[in-house]
Amino acid sequence: MDQLSPLDSLFIAAELPGLPQHVGGLTVLDPRQSQDFGFEKLLRVLDERIRLAPRYTRKLREVAGGLDRPWLVDDPDFDVRRHLHRIAVPAPGTMRELAELVGLIFPQPLDRSRPLWEMWLIEGVADGRVALLMKSHHCLMDGAAASGMGSLLCDLEPEPKSPREAPAIEPAPEPGELRVAFEAARHLAARPAATLRLGGRLLRQGFELLRAQRDPEAPPLPFSIPKVSFNGNPGPRRAFACASVPLAAVKEVRKHFDVTVNDVVLALTGSAIRRYLLERGELPRHSLVATIAVSLRAEGDTREDNQVTTASIPWGTERADPVARLLRIHRAGERAKQSARSADSQILGQLGEAFAPGLVNLFFRFGAERGAAFFMPGNAVVSNVRGTPVPLYIGGARIESMYPLSILAPTQGLNITAVSYCGNIDVGFTVDPDLVPDPWRLAAGIPLALEELRAAA
Q: Which residues are catalytic, by number?
C-alpha cells in the first residue's frame, strides 16, 4: 500500500464526467507465426507477470471529502479476468474500423472499485492480425513508466526460454483509520506553507513569462494564445486516428538540420495542423502553441509513478516554410525544456501539495464549465516517447506497431502522442469528434510533412 504523490493524486482530482484521466495504447499484433496465441495464453502471461508491477494489483482508497490524497491498497480479490476482455472488430477490419471501435471503448471510465486499468484483445483485424488496447489511469504512471510496465508483457523472442514469473506476495493490510487521519492532518498543517511557496513560484514564473515576451521566439502569454476550432470544451465522445513514418527518415532530417528527433516530431505535427487549418479556412495569423511533456525521470528510473512536467512552445504554424518552422521549434524548445526542469516551473506537483484533492476537483470543474474562456496553456498537447528499436512479442505474437492514446483537457479537444518502435514513429491522435470531425485528415498530414522536410534537406 502507498499514498499517491501530490502529482499522481492530481490526475484523480482532475477527473470529471466526460473528461476521464486515463491514457492508453493500441498495439497491432501479428500472431500468424505463433501456434498457440490466443485469449487464454494472453491471460496466462498477464497472470504470471502483472504482480511485477504492484500498482496494477492495487485499487484506489479515497479519503472522505477529498481532504487528502488517495491511497493505493492491495486488492484481495484481484483477478486478471476482470481486467482482460475480448471483442471483435467489424469487417473488413482495416485501421479505420479498428480506430472506430477504439473510439467507443477508450472513453469509458475505469471502474474505481478495482485496480485502475483494463485491456481489450481485439480480434478480426485484417490480414490475420489482432490488436491489444490498454487503458491505464494516469495516476499510475507517466509515458516513460508505461514503457517500463509494457516491457513486463513483452519478450525479445516469440517463446522465451525462461518465463518471468512474479513471486507470490501476501496482500498488505489497508491503512487504518488512525493512520489515514494522521496523514491527512499532517498534510493539512503543511498546506499553508506549501500555498505560500506555490504563490511565490507562480509570481516568479509570471514575471519570467512577461520578461520573455521581449524574445520574438517566446510563446504568447496564455490569455493571448489564438483559439481554433479544437479549443472548445471537450465532451464525452472520443475518436482516434493514427499515422506512421520511418524513423530513419526522421533521423535524416534531424542530422541535416542539426536538431533533435523531438524537434522533428513537433515540426511534423505543426505542419499537419497548419495544413488542416488552411483546408478549413481558419489558420490564425499568429502561431499556435504546443504544450509538450518534459520528463523529469532520471536515466534508469523505472518507478511506477509520474515524473513529468510541461512546457509551452510556439508551433510555428504561421510560417509557410517547413524549415523555418522546424528551426523556430528547435530554438524555442531548448529554452522551454531547460526552464521546465527548474523548480519554479514544476507547478503541477506543487498544486497537489498546496490544495486538498476536493478543492482541486472544484477548480477543474470550474475550468470545464467555463470552456474556452478558461486559462489555456496551449492549443494541444504533444508528447513523444522513446520506445525500443528491436522487435517485441506478446504471447508469441509479434508487435507490428503501437499507437498511443491520451487524455483531453478543458479547451484542448486534441492530443497528439508519438512513440518510436522498431524503425518507425507511430503517432496517435486522440480527439473529441465534435471538435475535430475527421482526425484522419490530421493524420494524413504527418507523412506529407516529412516529405516536405526531406525535400528541403
A: 138
